[in-house]
Design a protein that fits this description.
This protein has four helices and no strands. The two termini are 24 Å apart. The relative contact order is 0.08. It is extended and about 50 Å long. Helix content is 44%, strand content 0%. The chain is mainly alpha-helical and 97 residues long. It has one domain: NADH Oxidase.
């Protein structure tokens, strides 16, 4: 696969199967991802792999989270005008549905 194919086939996954991922596959993915570029090798990486009862507990914690989060800054422009507003939602619909 070349870069163009990778970009063209990119998608964001928002739902997952409950099928466990094999530990060897996780290890392989982590080894490959450790080769990813980072800004001057200064970005700290922390990766947590959870499964089984730990993941179940984490899901329960997340589903019960009620405290609102306040973002440090607005990710999206507050008063996005047309045609950009409609385009933004159409692109999101294409990518995430």
């Amino acid at each position: 696969m070349d870069v163009s194919e990778a970009v063209d086939s990119r998608k964001s996954i928002r739902a997952f199967l409950e099928t466990p991922v094999d530990d060897l596959l996780i290890k392989e993915l982590l080894e490959k991802s450790s080769r990813a570029a980072s800004g001057g090798n200064l970005q700290p990486w922390k990766i947590y792999v959870i499964n089984g009862e730990t993941m179940n507990s984490f899901h329960k914690f997340q589903s019960e989270w009620t405290e609102p989060e306040t973002p440090a800054y607005a990710i999206y422009p507050e008063n996005l005008k047309e045609p950009y507003k409609t385009s933004r939602y159409e692109v999101a619909d294409d990518m995430y549905s």
